[in-house]
Amino acid sequence: MRPLRADARDNRARILTAAEEVFGQSPNASTDEVAKLADVGIATVFRHFPTKAELLEAVLTVRLERLRDRAIELAGHDDPGAAFFAFFDQVVAEAASKLAIADALGAAGSSAGADAREAGAGMREAFGNLLARAQRGGQVRADAAFPEVYALLIGASRGATAARLEPEVRDRMLALLYGGLRTRA
Amino acid sequence: MRPLRADARDNRARILTAAEEVFGQSPNASTDEVAKLADVGIATVFRHFPTKAELLEAVLTVRLERLRDRAIELAGHDDPGAAFFAFFDQVVAEAASKLAIADALGAAGSSAGADAREAGAGMREAFGNLLARAQRGGQVRADAAFPEVYALLIGASRGATAARLEPEVRDRMLALLYGGLRTRA
Fold first, then answer.
1. CA angle (A105 as vertex; A102, A108 as ends), nearest 5
2. Are the C-beta atoms of B150 and B88 separated by less than 8 Å?
3. Per the CB < 8 Å rule, is A169 touching B176?
4. CATH 1.10.357.10 matches B52-181
5. What's the CA gap between A76 and A70, in Å, rounded?
6. Interface of B with A in 127-166 (CB under 8 A)
7. Which domain of life is it from (chains A, B) (predicted)?
């Protein structure tokens, strides 16, 4: 990719912020609505993102990178159990819009490309690190292996989204789930 | 609906069985493939189900009714805790094809109609009954309310499907989740 001039960089960032908002609300929204919210012309959107699929993937990548960075930051937390569950909370709470974007990408005839896949792998690695720390700290069951804990994270996220859970129900669902993950007192 | 003659009823049942198999494998499969597997002409399929959406909904309804009947049957089981977890297991294990059909219905431009909604409500009621019995039996935490337990069921189903989990990982995921639902020894 060619380096972008400062104003082009600003436009790109504005378009991504607007797209996250617009597609988070409705995955079937049009690129036109993104241009309006970003206050740029539609031609500018297409110059940065020639297809809707490319725009959706860029939004998904940004979200995954942000979650990865949050997991890395939480790995420095004093209480590894609290850090692990705080990250789990955040992923599930954010899932509605993140999954809507992933679904929209599927509907746009493209599954996640290299950038989103790399960001996803980085997020999983950082989550695995939080899990390992919480297990070493004795706060999460040592016999819970990564694949099934990650499956619970995905499942809780999808359950919260599919059932459009009220935040109170979501929190009680997570409390039950965390009861299974925590070591017994 | 007009009563069907015996051979028409047989054709309808054969089409539904074939459709469950074909759309369970791939929600984007064509009605033509269903006709071939059912060994009937495509005109016969369209006579029973004028649109793909109607065929998909009939398949989804049959599956939900079957799960509801299974939950009702399990409610007669001696061990209400074992009955509750056996039903949970079965829903999650079957989720891959059931969800594929629900997704296909969405993609066909129609969300579940009255028949599927009624079957879904019957299934939820029967599941709620299994939960109440397991709680009265002291095997499931009494403070777990239906909405969050149902959200866990949906979440575990979607997690197993989205991540295409190996059966072993699925079982370990459920073991963690059940640890959170069970009363403490």
1. 155
2. no
3. no
4. yes
5. 10
6. 141, 144-145, 147-152, 154-160, 162-163, 165
7. Bacteria
User: Could you tell me if residue B109 is left (phi over 0), alpha (psi between -120 and 50 degrees) or otherwise beta?
Assistant: left
pLDDT tens string B55-70: 988 998 998 899 999 9
Assembly ipTM:
0.79
Q: How many CB atoms lie within 10 A of CB B130?
A: 24
Domain boundaries, chain A: 1-50, 52-181
Q: How many CB atoms lie within 10 A of CB B70?
A: 18
| CATH no. for B1-50 | 1.10.10.60
How many angstroms separate the CA atoms of A9 and A12, rounded?
5
A42/A32 Cα distance (integer angstroms):
6
pLDDT digits (tens, 9 = 90+) for A86-132: 999 999 888 866 666 766 666 555 566 888 888 889 999 999 999 99
With CB atoms and an 8 Å threshold, state whether A163 touches B150.
Answer: yes
